[in-house]
Predict the 3D structure of the following.
Amino acid sequence: MNTQHFHTERGCLSYITYDLKSKEAALIDPSAEMTSEAYVDFLQEYGLTLRYIIETHTHADHISSAKEIQKMTDALIVRHVNAPSRTKDVVVSGGEELLLGDVGLHVISTPGHTNESISIYNGAEVFTGDALLIGGTGRTDFQVGSSDALYQSLHSALGSLPPETLLRPGHDYRGRNQILLGDELRTNPRVAMSEPEFVSFMNEYHPPKPDLFERAIEENSQ
């Protein structure tokens, strides 16, 4: 598998991961802050066929371009069963395998930031959306978030993956797009907290809502 990242000026990350043999690809968390042509041009340059557009959760800080890219590629949109959007060609809840040629993308349920958060594991990389970030985690104070659920997602679901797995977060504001999962789980200050400490901290953590919150939730839920 190969992966290309796309980083917007506001720190949103999306990814195209693809099978070298079959040339089949999946696009994870496309953002309208990146032109749809940027994704499609990359696919065309490398002769790739887009099979899936995967949303790790309903984004509250940027507008998804999944539906626009679907019109350009005929790819299937993948969302969690709890996602509010009715635009779901493939409905997942965790445990499913999405095939790119003979290679499977494993859907992992990682709720906490939202009740519909999923991560995608391709055997070498894990795309965590906002569940686990480099040096932090997603917030839990809206979108049916749960601090208890996020703790379990970090320590049980993601913590069970091989430490040499490459973590690919959904956001980073310092230009980063990858880190070894084992290193992140060892050094992330929130992961280092005990469960009671983590739950207490996250329950009291109420940063300002994203600038595009109302618009993003409305448009991404359609």
